[in-house]
Fold each of these.
Amino acid sequence: MYTKIIKPILFRFDPEHVHDFFVATGRVLGATALTRGLVGMFCRYENPMLETTVCGIHFKNPIGLAAGFDKDVQLTNVMPAVGFGYMEVGAVTRYPYEGNKGLRLARLPADQSLIVYYGLKNIGAEEIEKKLKRLSFSFPVGLNIAKTNRADIMGEKSVEDYVETYRMLGKYFAYVTINVSCPNAQDGCTFQDPAMLDDLLGAYAKEEKVCPIFLKISSHLSEQEIDDILAVVLKYSFIDGFITGNLSKRRDILDLKSEKERLDLIPAGGISGKPVQELTTNEIRYIYKKTKGKYVIIGLGGVFTAEDAYEKIKAGALLVQIITGLIYGGPTTVKDINKGLVELLKRDGYKNIAEAVGKE
Ligand SMILES: Cc1cc2nc3c(=O)[nH]c(=O)nc-3n(C[C@H](O)[C@H](O)[C@H](O)COP(=O)(O)O)c2cc1C
């Protein structure tokens, strides 16, 4: 019903308005046990084969909501009912930011993709902390931390900005993701540069570790760029793993099918979905093999079906995330993926998700 009737209607409206509408609806549906129960009747699927433990955290299933859908921590009550095993909120930054001006979200249906140019819009760490004091979570919730997207916060100030958000908010979450790969920050992805990354991780290393910590990297990195990042990360034992990958601005290598005028709607935006699917799976595979499974890998990028998720798991991902797949596939997507994963595990003779990791 979603893909045949609801999606064609929704796709006539401005994508950012539709997203805001879904967030508002999700807040209402998450507010009472009755509405959560109703959502769960349609969307939830449970099977012991999907349960897994990563960094001591128990996940009912390996499919999580990726950062960017719930920037301001509004949907943590409803998402377990939607069928997710966990979710990542944010990106949250130390100071609030209203986001980039103009159009900042566009659809690329021919590519099963989105162009994103929010520029780290969020209400900031202080407002988020006020909310967190009143909230409790019924499943693992991670926090995606980025640098405040302001021209006056650069260089050393950027490092302090990142770390302060962790200091203020890290203790409330199951895990923290240091997002060094936002393509829409005013200074670009500078923190993937080895020297800058070293500075940033060196500052984090001085903080008390309050939860598992992951590093979110771009989806289009070369093997050399990954090696350079690994060389830095290996110095810091507090990093538990990688999330790969983020939106990509590398339109030159993405093999996009959409018409030029659609792509030009937001020339500076990052691309999600199908065009980054293979790139991110390659990164998962490369990191998994290169580090012999030493790190937790959370894989995302163009996951629409159980087969897509399974491919990332078999390449080495312990957990998977989706966002574009949810927007294109609708609220029962997570259930369909989880059901399909159980079938694939049975087909291949695995007893549970963990057994399939890295078994390409
Ligand atoms: C609307 C939107 C907003 C996003 N915002 C963030 C963000 O704030 N932080 C982040 O790390 N990734 C963000 N992303 C990237 C996603 O988390 C994900 O890495 C990327 O979209 C690839 O996954 P997908 O193909 O399932 O969408 C955003 C993606 C979308 C579509």
Amino acid sequence: MKLEVPDYIYTIPPYVPGKPVEELEREFGIADSIKLASNENPLGPSPKALAALGAAAAKLHRYPDGAGFALTQRLARHLKVKPGQIVLGNGSDDLLGMLARVLLQPGDEAIVPDPSFLMYTIVVQSAGAVPVKVPLDQRLAMDLPAMLSKVGPRTRMVFICNPNNPTGTAIGRQAFDAFMAALPERVLVVVDEAYYEFVRDSGCVSGLAYLESPCAVVTLRTFSKAYGLAGLRVGYGVMNASVADLLNRVRMPFNVNSLAQVAATAALDDSLFLEKTLATVHQGLDFLYAELSKRGLRYFPTQANFFLIDVVRPADEVFQALLRQGVIVRSMRAYGYSTYIRLSVGLPEENLRFLRALDAVL
Ligand SMILES: Cc1ncc(COP(=O)(O)O)c(C=O)c1O
């Protein structure tokens, strides 16, 4: 083979997902492991979504509705926006890729908070563009003034992760207003709200509030977290209709499969499941905070369904030792936090199991 691959492809850091339970059990020859590593919904999928799948399965010989009509209409009602302002994705990851394909050429720049969701860097580098990384501030929150100071003539987009993965910090209205007022109109803002449903801080603002701004603002949400449908891959972006038109030009024609469309539409009607999910996560967080305080361990309060814990030892070692106890978390060493782990909130019994494993390890 003599492939002519652009050099920048070789510089892309491969995405490392949370370890699947099956892989851990295969490697260690153990059973009954738990995964608290990928910020998934501990309750499972929405029951209404599951019920809707049965009837949809009988039509799997047909292509999906490429326009995702029913889901888009339902989302538009839910969010009080026009259907033409919504683009569906095969997970919100898919929309990140579309945005990069539309906006970035080799040599362009995109501003990326650091640490944050690793896919931003990957999609920017895939287009041959340069991720300009801006460290978080002392509170581990996005430093919007510092991000603004990095805007230059080649800046095409800015990524905002709200709440931020992996730190769980969220942005308030005043800081966002000041940022938007100073940003040049040619720069597109991606506001990734994968965890927005979990936010408890009433001061936190959504990108949807800036839909009519002079700058293009694309707000991304997903059914992978609060709605429990990570395995189906469905997310969406809300944006000005002219930006939606651009994304639809590069979107694969059947990017959201028919089961995902039907399940996501049903999940939006499952308000009981959403309520139960939020109660489980919020009660779990409060329990874990109290237990970690009792142990004298420092943690970082979150607006999401995961949070950082300083285990005061090399995070990779603690991660490995927890694996041997059948508990999968995330080491934050690769994110620049050598003694932090990230924990996704689980069911009450899973949270207890994590604490027992942590006690054994520490
Ligand atoms: C901040 C953030 N954005 C986007 C995603 C991707 O979500 P999806 O499953 O919709 O592709 C994740 C998944 O972990 C995430 O943490």
Amino acid sequence: MALCGYSLKRLCAVLSPLPLFRAVQIFEWIKKGAHDFSGMTDIPLGMRQELATRFSLFDSTVQTQRSDSTGTTKIGFKLRDGAIIESVLLIDQKGRSTACLSSQVGCPLGCTFCKTGSMGFVRNLKSAEIIEQFVQLHAGRESIDNVVFMGMGEAFLNSDALFESLDILCTDWHISPRRITVSTAGVAAGIAMLSAQKYDIRLAFSLTTADSQLRERLMPITKTNPLPLIKEALCNYQTHHKQRITLELVLLKNVNTRPDDIQALISFAHGLNVVVNIIPWNTVEGISLQKPTNSEIHSFAQALEHAGLNVTRRFGRGSSLSAACGQLGYRQ
Ligand code: SF4
């Protein structure tokens, strides 16, 4: 049994009848990046040896780890059942770190531009498997500044584990909720659950296009969770949380960059406090879409800005590692 993915409360229960302060010591060592019990010098040697016979700290093993010149690191983890997932640590130009976590092995939603979607769905991750990714990315660092649920899978389709993980990150790891973002392809029930949370967790909606017919083709979830339903859920979230919502727009050359897409987006954003994050599509082997040209990206962004929208552009950090948005999806 591995300990690092647990909440402190659960850790105390698992280690019982050891006193609470022992669980706190072990938790602090996990935070400091310990990979086994041997270096936990404030715990008596005999106790460390006994703990090592009963428990391990990690269930997953690092299968692959690669970094690039932008400071992005992509890690492939092998889980206990042999399933493989990927997580990414991004470092921005100011040195701030962001852990991008996966919530599922594969994804059932099949968005046509996404590598994970092309893998199909294998299973949901347990909350401990989600937290283990965070702990592994955290190891060797003072802290992690931001956490985003934008890795493999649709987090709201694994809501029990998602909300348990959010609770552990906020309560035990003291990550500010405002530094955590859950991204969704558009699961209205999940947005409603997030709205009902006490924490002010940030929300990103992967819109891609506000043209419903085109979106149904690119993101089949639109058929069961149509855009008017999502808009209602987003308005409800903002009534409760006052947080600006990120609308993520994966731009695909000659697909969702038409004037009609711009108009539909402006109208969808009306009444919401949003920032539009433009993400030029990152090439994925086997998917016959194309990256937009720079002038296509520029004109698209400019049209939105002229309409008064806040726009940011994300330029493929990690794309050389296939660690950028939509490129995660390890195959065994
Ligand atoms: S974009 Fe997100 S929701 Fe869509 S298939 Fe990929 S991982 Fe799943």
Amino acid sequence: MSLMNRPYFRTRIAENTRLSPSACKIVFERPEGFADAFPGQFISIRVSEVTVPLLRRPFGIMDLSSTGISALIKVIGPGSSILAAKRAGEEVEIAGPLGGVPFDRPGGEGVVFVAGGTGLGPVIFCARSWKRENISCKTHLFIGAQTKEELLDGLYRDDFSFIYSATIDGSAGYKGNIVELLEKEIDKGGIPSELLYSCGPKAMVRALVDRTGSKFKNHYTSLESVMGCSLGACRGCTVPAIEDGKKVMRSVCLEGTVFNSEAIDWEEWK
Ligand SMILES: Cc1cc2nc3c(=O)[nH]c(=O)nc-3n(C[C@H](O)[C@H](O)[C@H](O)COP(=O)(O)OP(=O)(O)OC[C@H]3O[C@@H](n4cnc5c(N)ncnc54)[C@H](O)[C@@H]3O)c2cc1C
């Protein structure tokens, strides 16, 4: 993306719905000129009119209509807290859609999604976009959270063909982490092995690579790393990768967010 052509927009919050003590869904009015987006792309939000926090905060697009852009916001620090406290009608500046490589539309028997932490929004966007495009493959969502409340199951109940949940405290679904549950379901049979799409914390994706990598033909992952400009200029969000046997650094904001998990140098990514 050319830096001369920054896709910045002033817009307004159309809706802010609290989903749990630490999560909300925000719908922004879709500004004129905001391009069509693909699953795995994100918006970068200036959460405050003052200089603290200085950097914009990136959030995956959860859905897009002719009038609105939705995002799922998990409160983890000052920027997400300010955003989650905003009310309908308030103005914000957003940039987007950002991210150079989205999730591909699937072919074949089905796709397995694994979402944890802040990774649910982009996965919902995949399922909704493909339904609208009449892509008929079955979607299996594996979703992990700390507690039942944080599963947010009312948000995506109708979006996937099959849903498998895990909570760390055991208040709903399998008691334990989502990677363990995926391993167990693979062992039982019935989970398609063509394609795994993941989105969530690095530790979760790394565990998927280590423990279930060999069970899927392809594993693509939408990565999150701490971002500066979100436009590919500052290189603050780069991750180590291996291409043609060479070590390279790839920016999540421009050369991702979606990567083949095999291309990431997990040992080097500290
Ligand atoms: C491409 C992309 C898409 C994202 N999509 C979503 C989304 O859909 N919903 C959502 O709730 N969040 C999403 N995030 C994460 C979100 O950007 C951060 O949670 C937010 O910027 C935190 O800002 P803060 O000021 O609240 O907390 P900060 O004070 O900035 O951070 C609090 C703590 O979290 C760590 N942290 C912050 N951002 C990240 C990160 N990206 N990766 C690892 N650790 C981090 C910080 O190092 C710090 O320890 C996404 C991030 C990226 C890069």
